[in-house]
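The methods section describes the discrete structure representation at length, but only in general terms. Since the whole study asks how a given chain folds, the encoding of that fold should be made plain. An entry of this sort, consisting of the sequence and the corresponding backbone structure tokens, reads as follows:

. . .
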Amino acid sequence: MRVAIVTESFLPQVNGVAGTVRHAVDRLTTTGHQVLVVAPGAGPAAYSGAEVVRVRSLALPGYRSFPLGLPDPAVQHALARFRPDVVHLASPIALGAVGLRAARRLGVPTVAVFQTDVAGFARQYGVRAEHLIDRWVGHLHRRADRTLVPSTASWDQLAALGVPDLHLWRRGVALDLFDPGHRDEALRAAWTGGEPGRTVVGYVGRLAQEKRVRRLAELADLPGVHLVVVGDGPERGWLAERLPAATFTGMLRGPELARAFASLDVFVHTGEAETFCQTVQEAQASGVAVVAPAAGGPLDLVAPGRTGSLYDVTDPGALRRAVGALVADPDTRARLARGGRQAVAGRSWARVVDELVDHYAAVVAPVPGRLAA
């Protein structure tokens, strides 16, 4: 099959959208499909056997590392030249809208993957545009032939916008990378200064307002805890000032990231607008007890008391209490860690991308009366 992926983000960016596309390309090319990627901003012109067409972009204020794709005739030219069987729209909002229009003009079926709650992020930044954003997101997904959502919360969100033909498509996890066997006692000692008996609690992700990372300050003086913050972003300075005893590793990738995950005792996530929350899966695969918000994607990933712990995001003390309970109870930590690892045992990226191909196949059959944009 010839698959064109029009994505809002791709390498060298590191985020959920770029990561999902990267794993999809890896598996698609390995299994014999021909792939074209259309992405905004500067970056590699090829990846894993697929050509990457770069189009015009604009750096967002406060997010200089995140290029926003702009309308560019290169999108339709690239699709017309490649002649895809299907166009995959990865988290469409800006460049995805251009790709959708081009695909409809060319009569190519589309699969749209909802991955970013842009309206939710806007709320975190105090931008009063949720209604307009939701209308735009609904408009795009209603025009796609099929929409894939990562969680039941996302399903409900898009169904409320009138989007038809919704299908649940979860994310995979790199089970060959994230594993309890990577736990490193020397690394833990370096984090804690060799102080015995400390429970290492960690956050992994972008240090940005939409992730609600300022809630980590609630854990600053939790007895017996050493806090580790993995990642980077605009909120790092604020956090470092209020968490002087914490370890800030910066962004980690590959084996270093896997080692950091497995060396935690408790993983905590603070974001309330996550459509999925990939780092929860990575922590579970690493054999680490999880504390996550009872909102969005984590509601599907964490079964309280079995595969992790959820806290009420409306309760200012809930995060601290949830983490404190696990710090005080190593047996429960171990049980939740085992349950979490068992829950993700079958979620390899290979299996998940093979499911994606089934969705492609479902829309490739000729659709009578397809309208031009």
Observations:
- DSSP finds 14 helices and 16 strands in the chain.
